[in-house]
Amino acid sequence: MNRLFLILAVFALVALWVVPTGARANDLPHVGQLAPQFALMDQNGKIQHLQDYRGKWLVLYFYPKDETPGCTTEACAFRDDIFKIRKMNAEVLGVSIDEASKHADFARNHHLPFPLLADTDGIVAAQYGSLTNVLGFKLAKRHTFLINPEGTIERVYAQVDADHHSEQVQADLAQLQQSSH
Q: Can you give the pLDDT at residue 3?
């Protein structure tokens, strides 16, 4: 009996420790809401601000960790599609909790032509409902926000398939641009 209790107690403790905590879907900014402001350093040491992108569409994507399989897939898809995205008057910014120096290595290793922002304290990820805690480590959840040229959120992607996300964003961007004319 005591052994079974001990096993169940350990199992419950491990489950609580392993299960991510953090933002829930209803904590995410909503469509129609002004996008939360930010000022974060990119991989080149430049401070990027949300207002720098006024007049353009912005694909602001949060991702957990540089050089991990899903994050690399997602970043490389945006890289491969960057000319199509820019032709749609849009820019891409990636955000994670990693340091700017890690972003620099990641961008160099994969020839990423867009800024990767270092949200090392997780404040911006938290403002966007994208901060989580896994095993005591802060991470950004894989969320994306499509922000219009006036700074308003037009799409929120809380469930992202890294393999097809860039295509989905482009299709939605085309639809939104067509409906605004």
A: 59
Residue type, position 55, single letter: G
**76 classed as catalytic:** no
Give dist(CA 92, CA 67) in Å, integer.
Answer: 18
Q: What residue has token string 């290595």?
A: 105
- Domains of the chain (ranges; CATH) run 22-179 (3.40.30.10)
pTM for the predicted model, two decimal places: 0.85
The candidate with the shortest Cα–Cα distance to 72, out of 173, 142, 25, is: 142
Tens of pLDDT, residues 124-137: 999 999 999 988 88
Amino acid letter, residue 102: K
Nearest CA to 90 out of 172, 24, 19, 32 is that of 172
Tens digit of pLDDT for each residue in 66-116?
999 999 999 999 999 999 999 999 999 999 999 999 999 999 999 999 999
Over its C-alpha atoms, the chain yields an Rg (Å, rounded) of 18
Catalytic residue, chosen from 23, 40, 71, 131, is 71
CB atoms within 10 A of CB 157: 19
